[in-house]
Amino acid sequence: MIAIRNIERSEAANHADELADIWKKTFQDAYGDVFTPEAIKAYGDEHHTLEEAERWLTMPGTRAAMAERDGEVVGFYIVRYVECPVFLPAASAELKQIYVRASEFGQGTAHELFEHARARIKGTGRGWMWLFVADFNNRAKRFYEKLDFARIGPGPAHTVGAEKLPCSLLARCL
After folding, report:
1. Quick one: average pLDDT of 60-85?
2. What CA–CA distance (Å, rounded) separates 43 from 20?
3. What is the SS3 assignment for 53-106?
């Protein structure tokens, strides 16, 4: 059974190591067959550090949650309460990241994390959720399509090592 727990800003220092660890693991799981091990390690060493995790967990307007199975962190999400760069007909928030371990693929964990994030955003009175997804990430694109996200524009390129990856901006009504 999956348990989802909110990570409060006041507890960020106690959970930054967990976020940094799950970031590295899930990034490897998601992109291990796309990038070289060296590129993944370099990206993680720059972006998935304890300092970056603590920064994200304490950033104003940002909330996070982690999913656990049998006491082990198996996924997470980060939500930012910022407006979409493209006009939406109501207030919105960004689903900045949602990742689960490969062992959780097809187990419903990502869906549970998504529903938790959706309810959290909706509870603030916002009517829309948006995100960026790498265009080549077919697993993620299928996941978001099933959740009724639609492409509303291009996103910024995501750089990993020497690779610049085109992204799309997706949104859905809550």
Report:
1. 97
2. 12
3. HHHHHHCCCEEEEEEEECCEEEEEEEEECCCCCCCCCCCEEEEEEEEECHHHCC
CA–CA separation, 20 and 108 (whole Å): 23
User: Residue 49: phi, psi to the nearest 5?
Assistant: -95, 165
Instruction: For residue 151, count CB atoms less than 10 angstroms from its CB and return exposed for 0-12, middle for 13-18, buried for 19 or more.
Output: middle
What's the rounded Cα separation, in Å, for the pair 80 and 96? 6
Alpha-carbon torsion angle 66, 85, 118, 64, nearest 10: 20
Look up residue 74 and give its two tokens: 């198996």
Our CA angle for 71, 124, 67, nearest 5°, is 10
Taking only the tens place, the pLDDT of each residue in 106-139 is 999 999 999 999 999 999 999 999 999 999 889 9
Q: Name the β-bridge partners of 21.
A: none
Alpha-carbon gap, residue 114 to 102, rounded angstroms: 16
The mean per-residue pLDDT over the stretch 42-62 comes to 93
- Is-above-0.90 flag for pTM? yes
